[in-house]
Amino acid sequence: MPVRPVVSVPLAGFCTVISVFGVVILLVIGACIQNGVHGMDLEVEDRDAVARTAYIAAAVYAAFILFCGTQLGLHRRYGRVAL
Asked: Which residue, of 31, 38, 54, 67, is most buried by count of CB atoms within 10 Å of its CB?
């Protein structure tokens, strides 16, 4: 049984773009916090734990990229259903 798309093309495209932006921003924020970049002075006990949380959030966004990209591919493969 073939897998059919779950979300529409515009929604999958928007989700992909937002998720790419989210991954990039969260990776930069995580690296800045972990390395103690000037301007990212946080009063936390464990910088690595905070950075790890940003990296985990980036991984969640990467999973959305995978899901939404798959949805776009399914739309290309199956197209519209004729009634």
From this structure: 54
pLDDT tens digits for range 45-83 = 888 899 999 999 999 999 999 999 999 998 888 876 555
> Residue 5 is which amino acid?
P
Indicate the length of the chain as a whole number.
83
Closest to 40 measured CA to CA, from 29, 48, 49, 50 = 29
pTM of the full predicted structure?
Answer: 0.82
| Tokens found for residue 52 | 């790890």
- Terminal-to-terminal C-alpha distance of the chain: 20
Q: Which residue has the tokens 């495209």?
A: 13
pLDDT of residue 41: 67
Cα-Cα-Cα-Cα dihedral sign, residues 53, 58, 63, 68: positive
Q: Which residues neighbour 7 within 8 Å (Cβ) at sequence distance 6 or greater? A: 15, 68, 71
CB count in 10 Å sphere of residue 71: 22
